[in-house]
């Protein structure tokens, strides 16, 4: 079972190269932008930097590193969304479902392997790329500071890299669990319909429009927004989200683990996955 599952995961990575190509491409564009934007970055250390408060110094130093990680992780989330929409639909579209059903691989293994990609593989790739980009940024910043004749200790003394790395890993784990029902629902839609993207977008828009017209309320919109961005407010100290996360004291795992939305979402994810597995058994090529 374990070997079959691992083989299924490798097959998904091989067939959907976007799970690693897209984050690397985004990182490449970031690298290009950072090289040409190094003048602005190193300029933050000139003038009155040494007279600023310690908290403000840390924010100035940490901001480029936080933005770099945030952009790459956001790109990985978008990649995961489109992967899930295509994962079960593609095998029906290209008729490969007939071949894979002839193999000794259960529907449960197939669906869970596809679910494993957005919840483990893509975040792991994004985390590795983000770390590599931050190391590259650190190198660029050091060179830029040295060329300006500025002591690099100004940057290293105010850059809590270890705490930021732990916070980034924590944030990834938090969002994996928070987004699990989204990924599972998209896999279910991918197995169910011919145009998964439209069947996700149009109902979401339609429900909000009908609610606004009928009741003049926005509960559905707020629920969708909470599911998309609510993890940050639940897993971190809300007062610290105005800038980069530079201290472990800004993490709030107890509040996150006691949030009903987390556990209800995980239950919904299990139900969606069960439905997707049952549905795939009866799916035929288009």
Question: Any overview of this molecule?
Answer:
By secondary structure, this protein is mainly α. Helix content is 79%, strand content 0%. It contains 12 helices and no strands. The protein starts with a helix and ends in a 6-residue tail after the last helix. The model has no long low-confidence stretch (mean pLDDT 83).
Briefly, what is this?
The chain has 286 residues and is mostly helical. Helices cover 79% and strands 0% of the residues.
Shape: globular
Main sheet summary: none
Distance between the termini: 29 Å
Strand content: under 5%
Poorly predicted runs are none
DSSP summary: helix tally: 12
Helix content estimate:
over 70%
Spatial extent as radius of gyration = 22 Å
Number of distinct beta strands: 0
What is the N-to-C succession of helices and strands? HHHHHHHHHHHH
Question: What integer is the average pLDDT?
Answer: 83
Class per helix and strand makeup: mainly alpha
Primary descriptors:
286 residues, mainly alpha, 12 helices, globular
Describe the secondary structure blueprint for this structure:
Layout: H1 2-15, H2 18-36, H3 38-43, H4 54-93, H5 97-102, H6 107-147, H7 153-156, H8 161-192, H9 196-215, H10 219-235, H11 253-257, H12 260-280
Helix pairs in contact: 1-6, 2-4, 2-6, 4-6, 4-8, 6-8, 6-12, 8-9, 8-10, 8-12, 9-10
């Amino acid at each position: 079972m374990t070997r079959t599952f691992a083989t299924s995961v490798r097959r998904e990575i091989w067939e959907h190269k976007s799970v690693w190509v897209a984050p690397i491409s985004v990182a490449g564009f970031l690298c290009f932008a950072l090289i040409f934007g190094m003048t602005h970055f190193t300029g933050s250390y000139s003038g009155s930097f040494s007279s600023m408060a310690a908290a403000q110094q840390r924010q100035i130093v940490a901001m480029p590193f936080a933005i770099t990680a945030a952009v790459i992780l956001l790109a990985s989330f978008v990649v995961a969304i489109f992967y899930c929409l295509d994962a079960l639909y593609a095998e029906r579209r290209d008729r490969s479902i007939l071949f894979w059903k002839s193999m000794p691989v259960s529907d449960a293994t197939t669906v869970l392997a596809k679910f494993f990609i957005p919840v483990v593989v893509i975040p792991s790739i994004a985390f590795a790329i983000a770390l590599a980009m931050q190391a590259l940024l650190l190198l660029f910043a050091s060179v830029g500071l040295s060329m300006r004749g500025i002591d690099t200790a100004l940057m290293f003394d105010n850059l809590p890299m270890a705490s930021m790395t732990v916070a980034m890993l924590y944030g990834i784990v938090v969002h994996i669990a928070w987004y699990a029902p989204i990924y599972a629902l998209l896999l279910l839609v991918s197995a169910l319909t011919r145009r998964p993207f439209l069947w996700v977008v149009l109902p979401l828009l339609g429900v909000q429009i009908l609610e606004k017209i009928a009741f003049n309320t926005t509960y559905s919109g707020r629920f969708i927004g909470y599911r998309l961005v609510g993890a940050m407010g639940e897993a971190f100290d809300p007062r610290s989200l105005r800038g980069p996360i530079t201290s472990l004291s800004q993490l709030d795992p107890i509040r996150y683990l006691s949030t009903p939305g987390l556990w209800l979402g995980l239950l919904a994810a299990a139900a969606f996955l069960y439905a997707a597995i049952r549905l795939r058994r009866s799916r035929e090529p288009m």
